[in-house]
Amino acid sequence: MRRFVPDDVKQLRMDICMVCPSWQHTSNRCTECGCQMKVKVSLRSSECPLKKWGRHNDSLDARDTGIDTTEHEESTEESGD
Q1: Is residue 79 part of a domain?
Q2: Which residue from 52, 42, 48 is spatially nearest to 11, judged by alpha carbons?
Q3: Domain around 48
Q4: pTM of whole model > 0.85?
Q5: Does a structural domain hold residue 43?
Q6: Of 27, 33, 50, 80, which residue has the fewest beta carbons closer than 10 angstroms?
Q7: How far apart are CA 3 and CA 21, in angstroms?
């Protein structure tokens, strides 16, 4: 079993984290869990403590990252990005 998620999942997780109020821009850390997010978003077993994204499952359809982006999309629309 692979230890790391595909690049598209890693990027989506990072995009979600970067617009979260718990994102610490200067250190690339989450203030909720204290993790270095460039590492955490790449690991299959990682989960967001705020449940914005969860563990990655390879058995999912390749087009389905297993991440609920509803809240992320709403916050992006609100910020005008």
Answers
A1: no
A2: 42
A3: 1-60
A4: no
A5: yes
A6: 80
A7: 28
